[in-house]
Amino acid sequence: MPHAPEDLTLDTGAAEVPAIFATPDDPWATLVIAHGAGAGMGHPWLAGFSDAMVDAGLATLRFDFPYRAAGRRFPDRPPAAIATWRAALDAARARAEGTPVWASGKSYGGRMASMAVAEGADAAGLVFLGYPLHPPGKPEQLRDAHLYDLTVPMLFLQGTNDPFAKPVEQLEDVVRRIGPNAVLEWIDGGGHSFEVAGRKRTQAELGASAAPSVAEFLRQH
Questions:
Q1: In this structure, is the dihedral angle defined by the CA atoms of residues 111, 117, 120 and 123, taken in order, positive or negative?
Q2: Could you tell me the sign of the dihedral formed by the alpha carbons of 82, 124, 40, 145, in that order?
Q3: Is the pTM of this model over 0.90?
Q4: Tens digits of per-residue pLDDT, 65-75?
Q5: What distance in Å separates the CA atoms of residue 109 and residue 103, rounded to the nearest whole number?
Q6: From CA 138, how far away is CA 89, in angstroms rounded?
Q7: Rounded (10°) CA dihedral 100, 64, 12, 215
Q8: Based on CB atoms within 10 Å of each CB, which residue in 1, 35, 43, 195 is the most buried?
Q9: What distances in angstroms separate CA 82 from CA 54, 104, 116, 166, one per listed residue?
């Protein structure tokens, strides 16, 4: 049975940011969830995903990056984002009672999670909810260099129609080069938020649709 969500404040060292911790009875893992560049932790997509993960038996911790908490539009540079990720993982670990703590994020949030782990942040693994491999329309500007040194399990959940990862062969090649610790699961026809043309779903439903694949991957690892 889910408990009432707990509002938290995380100290990143340079700023304080809000967070929400939600948990069922006896969670078997904790998933920390970061938002993308254009929306905060309260976006219905993230809320739907978090609720579905709690229903699957995981605790979740969502948080805002400092720029979002301060009402700014331009995303934080990696040092500030990485410091925030460290604070979020520490807060999750303090509540995890020895169960694994995973890092996940939508787009920018997932990329910053991977950069934090590349710099030594402690996470059992990474889940990318639409990895922004390159800016839309600029496939030559790859954001992959730090991924090849990561040894934790990684799930790339990606829409085949995502403008941040086209052509699809590029991401397939990146995942191959990372090695067997990385798994790529395509959502046929899915866009950056896993929306599929001609199929009407709310943002909360789109977020929740990612939960079964993520829960299964975490259970396998």
A1: positive
A2: positive
A3: yes
A4: 999 999 999 99
A5: 10
A6: 32
A7: 10
A8: 35
A9: 25, 13, 5, 27
